[in-house]
Amino acid sequence: MKRFDIAVIPGDGIGREVVPAGCRVLDAVAEAHGGFRLRYKSYPWSCAWYLKHGKMMPDDGLKRLGDSDSIFLGAVGFPGVADHISLWGLLIPIRRQFRQYVNARPIRSFPGVAGPLRGAPTFDVLIVRENNEGEYTEVGGRIYPGTDEEVVVQAAIFTRRGVERIMRYAFDQARSRSGRLASATKSNGIVHSMPFWDEVARMVAADYPDVEYSEYHIDAIAAQLVLTPERFDVIVASNLFGDILSDIGAALMGGIGMAPSGNIAPGTGGVSMFEPVHGSAPQIAGQGIANPVGQLLSAAMMLHHLGEPDAAGALDSVVAQVLIDPALHTADLGGSATMARVCDAVAERLRG
After folding, report:
1. Structural domain boundaries, residue 53
2. How far apart (Å, rounded) are the C-alpha atoms in residues 88 and 52?
3. What is the number of structural domains in the chain?
């Protein structure tokens, strides 16, 4: 029987609730489908760990994670620890160490879940976010802090290799779906990086004549994603633009607790990591009311990545079935179900 070693990082806040619940559901999937099992190793790295140790993870943390088949992450963030500390102390080092250059963020409508859009259009969009470079870099600095002469420089880094590989991944995804790819750019205002982004995208597009390729300025595509999300299939965007668009998409799904994501390392040999888009939500932590859907759909993405498409499809399908029932909606969706009740319902249906 196949065995997968999963590194589990619950993190902070509701991550400590939805991750263990997600593992229990994963065990139900493995039990129902057989052929594989999951072995978990949990790591307590978090903002709480930072407050005790002065860093988000130990010096050999990345080495430890490298021995796993996948990483299952909750959320990090806690009052008293600046967001840039948690991000640059844990998430970004993991993404870069393991060359997780793809951040795949699917967004879709679910029957039974009322999103904010009038007319409730049906949509199914994959946002492909470049995950290793772009606007999220440490290149830059500050001089004369706290004075009238203070200067801040923040550089965005775009490489031909980095842009080309994310484009090829996005075109491959579009080819396997409906054959449509939209690129988010801002070449009319960002004079160097975005024209370069467009040039590389058009070069790659020539190798995919069967894919309908289009370009939108980021402000325009943000508006169109809200107004007519059904027009899109795959959207490729830089690190910052993809981050923003995918949170808009999560809101369209019914709330940020609904959206999954995968930090994927295609062809690099690196370990991939799967996490919900939502944050640690410390204001509701410990109340048992967090929405587990984003974590469960991230688990389905992880199973698919591990080469278990039947189990992944079953989990994804059962989550969608459960969401049809308003009695199984958590508070963020206007219901009163607890996290445990939702996860129990998913597990029970998986076991038949």
Report:
1. 1-101+262-352
2. 17
3. 2
